[in-house]
Amino acid sequence: MSEFGKVAVLFGGTSAEREVSLNSGSRVLAALRGQGIDAHPFDPAEQPLDALKGYDRAFVALHGRHGEDGTIQGALELMHIPYTGSGVMASALGMDKFRTKLLWQAAGLPVPDYALLTADANFADIEQQLGLPIFVKPAHEGSSIGISKVSQPGTLQRAYAEAAKYDSLVIAEKGVMGGEYTVGIIGCGDGMEALPIIKIEPATEWYDYEAKYKRDDTRYLCPCGLSETREAEIRKGALAAFRLLGGRGWGRVDFLMDEAGNHYFLEVNTAPGMTDHSLVPMAARVAGMAYAELVRRVLEMVAND
């Protein structure tokens, strides 16, 4: 369609989330082509970025480093190619779980208690401070890569060593065990809206990589079971959390509930998955938006400023 011109669907890439990105991108590509849009696959791991010259816009379906962290966004801006999703700053902040927490805390948004870990940290003290269980995660990875759940005293250091394989910045986060939820975001400026909340109930001990992408017994509840008033309150907070980072176009804000019903914002995803198991397409469907329509709306909202 002439309104979009020649579109590059960026997927694959070099991050630890390459496999998920390939899945997302192939579905996006098919949805765009199914609507007559002149869309082409583009894997930055296999093609030089110079080959993007001649494209009119880019759909960023890259996940993780070099795709969701502001680097590809900066390259596209230098090449004057409009692209989907958040800009350089929001992408970089969203990929950094530590600095996201700092911003949210400064704005008074609730986040789980946490501590930064280093090789010489006093692991016993941190276990005592946060209480078990503790989730240990690389600050700059997604899709639950490198994350461990610490349930036994004395095992925090081992979990740190696993996360440190992926990142020099490692976070220990207090386990909030009353339920895991997510809020999809779509739109720009005053037109930004939060999609219906999804509650995630994994059959595994927690929502790990296997539960996200490999299993078919993870349950996704939408409606999520919260009261209308509570859901509206949290959706409003999720929008504020996304806007605070400078997010635009689309995204996802994850949060946890404790047993008393208090919510804590966990992290933001500025290039959400678009696989068969992905959450934003699921929430959009509940809101009456088919997959192809969602993909088209995202493509319409490009960042070129």
Structural account:
This protein has 305 residues and is of the alpha+beta class. The chain is 32% helix and 22% strand. It has three domains: 7-85, Rossmann fold, CATH 3.40.50.20; 93-109 and 176-303, D-amino Acid Aminotransferase, Chain A, domain 1 (2-Layer Sandwich); 114-174, 2-Layer Sandwich (Dna Ligase, domain 1), CATH 3.30.1490.20. It has helices at residues 18-33, 71-78, 88-95, 97-106, 123-130, 156-163, 209-214, 228-244, 279-286, 291-300, and strands at residues 7-10, 39-42, 57-60, 83-84, 114-117, 134-138, 148-150, 170-174, 180-187, 193-194, 198-201, 219-221, 249-257, 263-269, 302-303. The strands form four sheets. Strands 9, 10, 11, 12, 13 and 14 form a six-stranded antiparallel sheet that branches. The mean pLDDT is 92.
Throw out a few tags for this protein.
alpha+beta, 4-stranded antiparallel β-sheet, 10 helices, single chain, D-amino Acid Aminotransferase, Chain A, domain 1, 305 residues, Dna Ligase, domain 1, 6-stranded antiparallel β-sheet, Rossmann fold
In short:
The chain has 305 residues and is of the alpha+beta class.
Q: Outline the low-pLDDT stretches.
A: none
User: What is the CATH third-level topology name of the largest domain?
Assistant: D-amino Acid Aminotransferase, Chain A, domain 1
> How much strand?
15-25%
Largest sheet: 6 strands, antiparallel
Instruction: Give the number of helices.
Output: 10
CATH-derived architecture of the largest domain: 2-Layer Sandwich
Helices and strands: which structural class? alpha+beta
Q: CATH-wise, what's the superfamily of the largest domain? A: ATP-grasp fold, B domain
Strand and helix order: EHEEHEHHEHEEHEEEEHEHEEHHE
Mean pLDDT: 92
State the distance separating the first and last CA atoms: 23 Å
Compute the CA-based radius of gyration: 19 Å
CATH class of the largest domain: Alpha Beta
- Please bin the fraction of helical residues: 25-40%
Shape summary: globular
Question: What is the number of E strands?
Answer: 15
How many domains would you count in the coordinates?
A: 3
